[in-house]
């Protein structure tokens, strides 16, 4: 009995269950592993991106408020290439130069024209920072269901073997149950980090959006006081 129990434990280990699983379960497993690997790549990439953005934005903002003229910031713009606040500033500066000399009356004030241009620039930067987060959301919401599909398929296989073998012994049932449990576990392993990371980076994104909008508003105020 001890040898038989040992044999079952060895034969139906996690790796053995995966290697001997049917093609549907193997495909499900590969999909989930692929989603998990890609999710972790996005997680690490976004960590570096947001960390760099907040550091560079702070550096640019400190320099902006210390600068005596906007031309000074334009001359030193290469020092702040990693800051999306700098990108918004460049858009705003170019727009100020274009509309500064306009004397004819328009439906919008010069400040409103500048504000629209800056709003478009902020939205563009937010979309760029948001890239990849939709995949984390998709993984977090769909991976458990993909794992559940593998679970159902594994249990179906177990019941089919019970019918064919006319036996409900552990040796007959265990392979299908192992496939089912592994599919569920892998689905959860892919979904949980993706969901946590998505919520974390959405919070970071909102903070970034607030800082960009705040700076855009400050830039409009500076332009109104000095140029319009």
Low-confidence stretches: 1-12
Query: Pairing-aware structural class of the strands and helices?
Result: mainly alpha
Domain unit count: 1
**Main sheet?**
none
**String of helices and strands:** HHHHHHHH
How large, in whole angstroms, is the Cα Rg?
29 Å
Strand content: under 5%
User: How many distinct beta strands?
Assistant: 0
Question: Layout of SSEs?
Answer:
Blueprint: H1 2-11, H2 14-19, H3 23-66, H4 70-75, H5 84-100, H6 110-130, H7 133-165, H8 170-226
Features of the shown structure:
mainly alpha
Question: What would you say this structure looks like, in words?
Answer:
By secondary structure, the protein is mainly α. It has helices spanning 2-11, 14-19, 23-66, 70-75, 84-100, 110-130, 133-165, 170-226. α3 (23-66) runs antiparallel to α7.
Compact summary:
The protein is an all-alpha fold and 228 residues long. The protein has helices spanning 2-11, 14-19, 23-66, 70-75, 84-100, 110-130, 133-165, 170-226.
């Amino acid at each position: 009995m001890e040898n038989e129990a040992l044999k079952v434990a060895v034969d139906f280990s996690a790796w053995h269950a995966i290697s001997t699983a049917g093609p549907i379960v193997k495909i499900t497993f590969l999909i989930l592993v692929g989603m998990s690997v890609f999710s972790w790549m996005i997680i690490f990439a976004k960590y570096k991106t947001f960390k760099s953005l907040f550091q560079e934005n702070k550096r640019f903002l400190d320099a902006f408020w210390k600068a005596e003229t906007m031309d000074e910031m334009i001359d030193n713009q290469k020092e702040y290439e990693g800051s999306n606040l700098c990108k918004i500033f460049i858009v705003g500066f170019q727009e100020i130069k274009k509309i500064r000399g306009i004397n004819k009356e328009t439906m919008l004030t010069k400040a409103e024209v500048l504000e629209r241009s800056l709003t478009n620039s902020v939205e563009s930067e937010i979309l760029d920072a948001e890239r990849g987060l939709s995949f984390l959301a998709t993984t977090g919401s769909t991976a458990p269901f993909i794992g559940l599909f593998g679970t159902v398929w594994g249990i179906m296989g177990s019941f089919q073997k019970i019918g064919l073998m006319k036996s409900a012994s552990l040796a007959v049932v265990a392979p299908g149950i192992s496939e089912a449990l592994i599919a569920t576990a892998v689905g959860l392993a892919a979904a949980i980090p993706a969901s946590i990371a998505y919520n974390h980076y959405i919070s970071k994104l909102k903070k970034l959006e607030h800082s960009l909008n705040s700076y855009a508003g400050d830039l409009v105020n500076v332009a109104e006081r000095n140029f319009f």
